[in-house]
Design goal:
- By secondary structure, the protein is α/β, with parallel strands linked by helices.
- The chain contains 9 helices and 15 strands.
- 26% of the residues lie in helices and 33% in strands.
- Helix 8 packs antiparallel against helix 9.
- Bound molecules: prephenic acid.
- Residues 8, 13-15, 54, 57, 63, 86, 110, 112-113, 135-137, 155, 180 line the site of prephenic acid.
- Residues 203-278 form the ACT domain.
Length: 297
């Protein structure tokens, strides 16, 4: 059928790997976009039925660009989630593979990837300047395109293989349990390979005004109805300093209507609640025992 699914590209990003797990080829055709806003906007406009973007990392936390774009620029449904293992690698043009680490002048990567390796970089590449690009695979492509420069890219092994880089070091993230949560957006689809580990609902809650206990009351409604919240994240409304939207992820338990009841209560207190989607959650190791995608390289 070859249904196209958009992902944060170019080929070889972690998001590409996540997209391949969520939307396996040949049934789907994973198609790169240049940035997270491009993926979300293309899905919002109906140019793609499906899209995949990162939303949270175990070390660095939220991918704010994804959260903000979901709130302010598009109206797309979250339709699935994948928690995927992240191994960061230091990769260089083969011309420089024998150079000592301190001889490299520039580190190129996505801000999330750099942040996941901050101590490692301070220790081993203290003099190198950092240049940020829109994805780790873009960083690999950039380093490959400048063989005359002593630059390193941080990113997945698959990007290194795709753009002809040598791996100098693997697993350079500062903490071992590095995972990123990716979301699928757009239309619902049946994942052909796996049973989900569970179901979640994502909600965007905006308080009517700031008064003592406002957020407490919201959380109390979920607690009273026995709804387990797995995440709460605030982002500025961008309208006034000190005002926030709250992203709340709620586990869908046995009592299916509990979330609806909690949302009803919260709305009756004057809060605005936008439902971002109810969706199945996949964990990479549980997708039919698959190992991390190697992009067939
Ligand atoms: O640049 C990539 O490879 C991406 O897929 C983006 C991204 C992110 O934004 O979090 C995805 C996973 C890793 O946490 C690092 C970067």
């Amino acid at each position: 059928m070859n249904e196209p699914a958009a992902y944060l590209g170019p080929r070889g990003t972690f998001t590409h790997e996540a997209a391949q797990a969520l939307f396996p080829e040949p049934h789907f055709q994973n198609t790169p976009c240049d940035s997270i806003p491009d993926v979300l906007t293309a899905v919002d406009r109906g140019e793609f039925n499906f899209g995949v973007v990162p939303v949270e990392n175990a070390i660095e936390g939220s991918v704010n660009l994804t959260l903000d774009w979901l709130v302010h620029h598009v109206d797309v449904r979250i339709t699935g989630e994948l928690v995927y293992p992240i191994t960061q690698n230091l990769m260089v043009h083969p011309n420089h593979a024998g150079r000592p680490l301190r001889g490299f002048t520039r580190v190129v990567s996505h801000p999330q990837a750099v942040a996941q390796c901050r101590s490692h970089l301070r220790k081993h590449l203290p003099e190198a300047r950092v240049s940020y690009v829109d994805s780790t695979a873009e960083a690999a492509r950039h380093v490959a395109a400048h063989p005359e420069e002593a630059w390193v890219a941080i990113g997945p092994r698959s990007a290194g293989a795709l753009y002809g880089l040598s791996i100098l070091e693997s697993g350079i993230q500062d903490y071992p349990n590095n995972f990123t949560r990716f979301i699928a957006v757009g239309n619902a689809w049946d994942h052909p390979l796996a049973d989900p580990a569970g179901m979640k609902s994502s909600l965007l809650v905006t308080l009517p005004s700031d008064f003592p206990g406002a957020l407490h009351q919201v959380l109390a409604s979920f607690a009273r109805l026995g709804v387990n919240l797995t995440r709460i994240e605030s982002r500025p409304t961008k309208k006034k300093l000190g005002t926030y939207h709250f992203f709340i992820d709620a586990e869908q338990g046995a009592e299916e209507s509990a979330i609806d009841k909690a949302v009803g209560e919260v709305e009756s207190r004057g809060c605005h609640v936008r439902r971002l989607g109810s969706y199945p959650c996949y964990s990479f190791d549980k997708i039919n025992g698959m190992r991390p995608v190697d992009n067939g390289l």
